[in-house]
């Protein structure tokens, strides 16, 4: 198991998406069962999508 920040995942596979995240999202800790080195891009995208949903659920509308 390896704990990484979402920023590491975004930077490795989708660096062009970096400006769309805020610091809180990028600093989110993600636990990878098999580590970052064998994570594939489709799995990385799934993690990113889940993270976006989780942070949107915590947002309040004014």
Write the layout of secondary structure elements.
Elements: E1 2-5, H1 6-13, H2 23-26, E2 29-32, H3 41-58
Which ranges are low-confidence, i.e. pLDDT below 50, for 5 or more consecutive residues?
A: none
Shape assignment? globular
For the residues shown, what is the average pLDDT? Answer: 90
Roughly how many Å apart are the termini? Answer: 39 Å
Mind describing the biggest β-sheet?
2 strands, antiparallel
Derived structural class: alpha+beta
Number of helices: 3
Q: What is the succession of H and E elements? A: EHHEH
Query: What's the Cα radius of gyration?
Result: 12 Å
The total beta strand count reads 2
Going across the biggest sheet, name each strand in turn.
Answer: 1-2
Q: Strand-residue fraction?
A: 5-15%
Percent helix among the residues? 40-55%
Please summarize what this structure is:
The protein has three helices and two strands, in the order βααβα.
Write a structural description:
By secondary structure, the chain is an alpha+beta fold. It is about 50% helix and about 15% strand. It has three helices and two strands, in the order βααβα. Strands 1-2 form a two-stranded antiparallel sheet. The longest helix is centred in the C-terminal third of the chain and has 18 residues. The model has no long low-confidence stretch (mean pLDDT about 90).
